[in-house]
Every structure is written in C-alpha cells, then in structure tokens.
Records
---
Amino acid sequence: MNFMLRTTYCLTLALLLGIQAASAQQLVTVSPGQIRVDGERGVRQTLTWRVASRGGAGSVRAEFVNLDNNRVLETRAVPLEVSGNSGTVSEQLTISTAQARRWYGAGVRRLGYRRTFSGAAGSLSNRVAIDLRFSARLASLNASPAQQTLTGNSRQMMLKWDFRSSGLGEVRAVSDSGYFLRGDQVVYTVEQSLISDGQQRITEVVQLPPGLVARLLADGIEQLQYSRTFTDEKKRQRSASVTVNLRR
C-alpha cells in the first residue's frame, strides 16, 4: 500500500514538474506594457518583445483591439521573429493623431496592440495597453452671455463657460475662484471652484451678498467685469469675462 502511495506521489510530482518546465519554456513579454497617447503627436514608441519558446517563434502580424470588447479594429502585417530558444526583438509602433482621433471618435478609450508568437512549442500572446483617455490642451475659453445686469433686488446671474480643445481628448481644467473687477481692482471674490472634467460647457450661478450692489452704486461704480481663469492639466491657462451692469 505504501509502495503504491509513493509511486502515485512520484508520478504526480513528475507530472507537475513537467508542466512547470513546459510553461517555463514559453514566455512572451513586452516593454513598455502601457502607453498614453499624446494628444498633439500621437504615438511613436519603440516596443521590445522578449520571447522564450523552445525552437524559436514568430509573429506574422499585429492587431489593434478595443480592450473593452476585444473587437479587432485594425491588422498590420509586420512580421517579427525570434530564433533560438529565447531572445528579444524590437519594433517601432506609430499611431498618427488622425488615426487616434478616428478611434476616439468611435468610442474607443482603451486600445490594445496585440501579437501572437507561434512556434514548435505552441503559441502565446501578449499586448500593450494604450490609453486614449487623455487631456487635450485648453485652446480657448468663452463666457456668455456677454452682458449681465444686477440690481439690489436681483443679485443673481447665470453664465456659461465654453471650452475649446486643441488636439485629441477632453479638456480637464479648473478655476479656483471668480472675480468681480473694476479695472485691475478686485471688488468681490467668488470662492467657488469650477471643474471641467471633459465637458465642453459649464454653467455657473453667481449671487452677490445683500447690500453689495447698493454700496457699489453709492461709490459711483455702475459696471464691473466678472472674470475667471481656468488651468488645464498641462498648466496652460485661459481667461474670459463678462460685463456686469449695476442698476438700482
């Protein structure tokens, strides 16, 4: 009985070691494993594939896939090959801004660049993850309506901030405060942050405190500028303002 148990154990151990050895003989890795698209330049990146496969392996083509649904978007017939049991091979991955814009416009946010290496020992795949969810440059900012009127009894105004981007992606920008200005002088500060997290338009409601309009009119101030400055993730700033007329 003990002999049978020892025999079974040895056979099981040999089988596991054989599986591990076979697995160790096949390996495909790629560096870098993740890439973020530049909204103004697209992608120009050297990829290095490391392949371990007994007898060598080759890849006849590469595939661009939507990682959210695994759908193949494009195939490129660029062959790569590693001879011997292990080695590395490099290629230049290029994605134009026009191509990235088409995929982005089609709703793709997580793109994969995938290869399958096949040889005598079998086939293995790996891929590079390409993030299309990036911030575009804030090209211009507009505030509307251009004219607002506030009175002692009507101290609230509503305005819209419109963002236009340059290049691919979405504008992510923040404004910490809004300022009522008379020339360069700050008359009143609105301590409320506004954040554009991909939206093309933000609506803001501003309300002045009671008595402020009357005090400003008493000082002879009948017109102000309400201004904000937005800063995007690349530290670029754009400002816009509206004219605010004060009436009794």
Note: Residues 27-131 form a domain with the Immunoglobulin-like fold (CATH 2.60.40.10).
---
Amino acid sequence: MPDKRKIYDMKKHSFSLLNIVFYLINLIACILLLLSYLANFISPDSFTFLAYCGIIYPYLLSANVFFVLYWALQRKRYVFYSLISILIGFTFIPRLYPFNNKQELTNDTALFKVLSYNVHVFGMYEPDNHNKDSIFDYIAMQQPDIICLQEYFQDHKNHLHDKVMQNILQTKHQYLEIDGINQKIGLAVFSKYPIINQGILAFTDSSNNKAVFTDLCLKNDTIRIYNIHFQSIYFDKEDYLFTSKFTKTDLDLKSEEMQTGSKRILKKLKKGYIYRSEQVKHIVNHIKSSPYPVVVCGDFNDIPWSYTYHQIHKLLSDAFVSSGKGFGNTLFINNKFPFRIDYIFYDKTFFNTSGFTVDKTAFSDHRPVYTYFSIKDKNQE
C-alpha cells in the first residue's frame, strides 16, 4: 500500500505550487488594475499603455474579485492585495454596473425625453437593407422630445430622411451638420422645442468627426445640447475577421497572423486614443464657456475608464450611472466583445434624471440610449 503521508505531502506540494502561480498572476492583475485607473487621468498621448489597460478594466476587475474569493477561502493574507486594489478604484465600478432603484421625478418641472443614437447611415451600404424603416419606426414609437443622431445619412436631392423625421416628431426644429456632395453623412439634432442658436465644433485633426451644439428654449429656461461624434477607430473587414478569432480554442497566439493582426489593431487604437484626447479638450473648453445648463449626447468611441470620458465626467454627470441599471453596453464587436461608448451627460445642479435605458434594438451597430430629464425646482437645495 502507498504511504498515506507521502501522498499527502505530494498533494500539499502541488497545492503550494499552484498557490505560487496564482500569487504571481494575482500580483500582475493588481498592478494592471491600478494602471487601468490611471488611464482616466493621464493622456494617452503621454502613455498609451495605460489606455490599453483601461479597455480591459472589466476583465481585470473580475480577475481581482476571483482572487479575493480564492484567498479568502484559504484564509490567506494575500486577499488584501486584490481587495485594496479594488477599493482604491471603487468609484469606477458604477460606470460598469450601476445599482439604482426605480426613481420617480417629483417636485420638478419640464419633464422631457432625450435620445441619442448612432444610426450607422441607416444601413444604406448594406445589401437587402431594411434597417432604415425599422429605425424610423423605433423613433416614432419612442417619441423623444430631443434626439441626437450620429452618422446621419441625408439624400442631398430630396432630403427625404429629414422630412420623415419631421413628420415622425411633428416638428420642424432641426439642425444638421453633414458632409458630402450627393450623399451627406454627419450629425443631426431634432427637437420639439425651438432652437434659438446653433453651431459646429470642428476637429482640426479629423474631417469625418465633429460636434455640434444647439440652444433650446424650454418654456422659461434655455438649455444647451451637445451632439458629439469623437474620433472613430475605423476597423475594416480584416480587423473584424481577426477579432472574431479570439474566441476560437485553436487560436495560435504565436502565429504570424496573430502578431500582425495585433500590431494593426493596437496601432489603430493608439491613433484613436490620441485623436480623442485632443478633441475632448476642445469640447471641455466650449462646455465651460456655455451660458446655459448643458446636456451632452454622443458616440464617444471610448470606454468609461478612458481619458476622454473622464474629462467630460469631471464637468458633468453620467446619466447611466445616475439612473441606469445593469450592464449598459451599446456596441458589440462581432457580437462578442461588449463596450459602452454611447453616452448622455448632464449638469446635475440643474437637471434630475430618471429611467436611463439602453435599448436592445438591432437596427444599427450601436444601441440607442435615452433618459428622462426634469429641471430642478429652483426652490430646492
């Protein structure tokens, strides 16, 4: 018969080796999680690696939660490594998964609904496209008071889409800022409230991305709405095909295809990070000079743990964090990799918000987001 003590010692030794491996992985996970926090504060133009850490924040957080549970079950002091790392960035967690109860707006005035949607040119370049009608039907069903559309497609000859939107919302208040000759693509704002002023914020480093603002008259108050489309990453079919392989079990991480594809993706991500870090400075300065309370809508092409997001968040509140629930992912790359890159921000000193929703429609590569606002009672403190 085998020596029971010898078997016990072998198992104990194997378990110790496993703990050593987990300990080293745990240290790496802690360091990367802490670096992901810094992605909010340090411009990617200075240190792009931090931005890469930020994009995998949800996975780093999950890994550290695992290690907290793993070491806690063994009553090891190593539990504090991940626990402290998580607590340092505890305020970032609601950006991933907010915990909000149902909120009812009371003692407020001028309740209105704001919807933001990247309509992906209504799918005009896709074969057998029926998305356009579906998008119009969706907007007709939602009946927002203010809608900000990105990648809005306009037929230059008859302006059919403009007329349909006006008919759907029963309004002629609109502001379009679009580029092109025969077929124009850009930003659109439609409002059931009068537009008393408008303007464009062009980005000098991009011909396709921009922002616009509109000043709206809401009874006795004037508010400013920003519609923003920050720098895109411009993934092509080759990039999407490459990312689709990440879930395959036979993926060869050392292959030439893997190395070439990874370098190409990282290069595009870096370019986008740097462009957006400059574009957001322009927006922040404009927001600071606004004479009216501000609501910001748009496709940021960036995650909630990024430098771009944080610059806006320093000035305004994220409506998803304030009144949303669950995971708020608005973009799915190859239907596998979820990201939240579409936002509605607001001035919490002037507005209350309720019922933030990420709709699960599949008519565009983005999901629409909407929320309800009310203007705070001026007698409230």
Note: The mean pLDDT is 88.
---
Amino acid sequence: MAKRIQSPSSMNTYKMCPRKYYYAYIKELASLPNIHQVRGSIAHTVLEKFFDQDVSGLTMENFEGSLTVVIQNLLLKEWQDNEEQLAKLGLSDKQRKFYFEETMLMLLNWLSDFCNLARTQKGSFSEIFKKITPIREQLFLSEKLQARGYVDAIEEINNELRIMDYKTSSSFDIDHHRLQLGVYCLLYQEKHGKLPDKAGIYFLKDKPKFMDVDKELLEFAKKEIELIHEKTESDKIEDYPKKKSNLCKYSTGQCEFYDICQKEE
C-alpha cells in the first residue's frame, strides 16, 4: 500500500490518539469546527492580509498608530465575513465578545513586536516594510518523504532566514512544536537545497520564540515521519487503539469524535 502523505497536523493527531487519527484521516469523518479553529483561521488571515497594505504614506513617526487601525479594521472585516461560521458555534453574545476582544489583543501584541522590529531597521518605512515582509502561506510537498506542510511565514531578518508559524494557543513552550518546525525545515531544505537559520513560533498571546535548525532537529523530524508511516499502513480500526486522556472530554467541550468513539471498541 502506498504511504499516506503526512503533515505535522496528522502526525500530531496520531501521537495524541491513534483512534482520532483513524477517524480523521482514514475514515475521513467530518468534524464540527470550534471557536479556537475559527478564530485561529481569522487571525492567520488578518496577518496574511496585513502585509498587502499600501504603506507608501506612512513614516517612521506615524506608522504604529496607522497600522493599529489597519489591524483593527482587518479583524473586524474578517470577523464579519465569518459570521456564518461563528453562528454555527452556538456561542452566547458574551462569549463571542470575549473571543473577539481576545483575538484583537493577540493581534495588537504581535503588531507591537513588528513595530519594535521595524524600528531597528534602516531606511524609510516603506523600504523597511518591504524588507521585512515575509513570504506567506507556502505549501511544501515532498514525494520522497511523503510529507507536506503549510508554512505561515518565511522571513529574512538581518540576513537570517527564519521559518515561522503563528499560534493563538495559551501554551508557550516552543518544544511542543519541535516536530512541526522540524518537518517544515526538512521540506524547505529539500525544495531549496539549504536550511533556514532559525525556526520559530509567533505566540500571539506571548512573544516570538525560536530554535536553531541543526542536524539533531532534522534527524528527529525524519525519524518521526518514518515512524508515523509505519504505524499508519493499516486501514483496520483495531490497529489504531484509543489513547484515553483529558482531551477526550473536558470542561468546555470534547473531542470531535467522542460520540462515535464511545460506540466503537
């Protein structure tokens, strides 16, 4: 049987719970979205569109205030454009207000770091903005590794090449994302014949964090890809055991496959 194409998301799903992997990637059961997925997608879209703005009229003296308004307007529009998705979540008005305001604070937190970076660069603001604008939303696909991944941002800052991902989560331990970043670096190396200098996460509730890209990281990612390929050759449900944890059912929700999982052994 041909290997299934793996991604950091599918690999992390398998490591979290093989049975969840079975439902999501083999049976391909539809899953209902949740607020964290929807607002994460909204935040990513805002950050992608942020770099499409015309900044020709901005200066080093006025750019931060103007970009704050840009971020606010982008989020408001994306939130409104996703009204249908948000309505399906069954949130109260109070809950929706909370998540909107929290998302706004995340984006303004990111903007503060962006503005601080801009101030360290030389040139007019338009020149600086162009220089630190990343390559966005790049799909990498490897036939050799049978793996793929969407990279949020590829930056070149102060002659340092960085692969970055945006996270809206409340956990700020970059080591939890070592597999994802390692896979991205492998895919980048295969396509471009060179390695990035750093890989990192923009924790939108915190600060950006980075890790060095070295042989150890690449070997770790490669071994994990091979292991997941070995573990996912079968189409039989019994080869994907349940891994019970507090992620099955928790105070604010449950796994999207919880109900069917309870019915099947």
Note: The first strand starts at residue 135 and ends at 142.
